[in-house]
Amino acid sequence: MADTITSSVPAPASQAAAGTDNQHTETSRWVWSAMTPAERETKLQELTGWVDWLLATYPKLHSKVPVCWYQHTDVIEHLTALFLGWVRTYAGDPAKLTLRSEIEWVSALHTMTPHLAIPACQAKNAHVDAPPRPQPDGVALESWMDSDPGSAFLNAEPYNPGKAEAGRMAAAALAAAEKAKAQKGQ
Question: Would the pTM of this model clear 0.90, i.e. be above it?
Answer without folding.
Answer: no
